[in-house]
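Structure tokens please, single chain.
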Amino acid sequence: MAIGILFSLKTGKKAPIASNKIVPPQVAPENLPKEIKNLKSKLIALTIRNNNGDLLIYQSQNFYIEYISSPQVFFVKILKDVNKSKLDAQNWFIGQGAKQEDLCTLPVRFFLATTQARKENLNFSSLPDGCSGQILTNPAVKK
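Here you go.
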């Protein structure tokens, strides 16, 4: 079944599903504070695998963290257990020396990897806790 093309069996209408909208970074990478640039370098040094420039930084059964060099964002792909995984991922960054507010600036963004997770979490935010920003539709997600 294609993502975003789910239909209710009773009504024939699309079932509600959370879109994967990504909030763009508020600060251009070249304008990041020095301490954030240093933290970003430290995190990138933890790379487990390089997939044509997409760097796998951390992996668990519930989520994984990648650094995507263009647009220079840490993406957390949540596979299951959405709320706990989002919190665990934020705590992983904090355990590496980040402060909660640093997650907004690095930047870190979250998205739901499965259709089931998107159906069950209609109000999911791509932002770390305590961040705000303007929503931009992720161009990689097909409607």
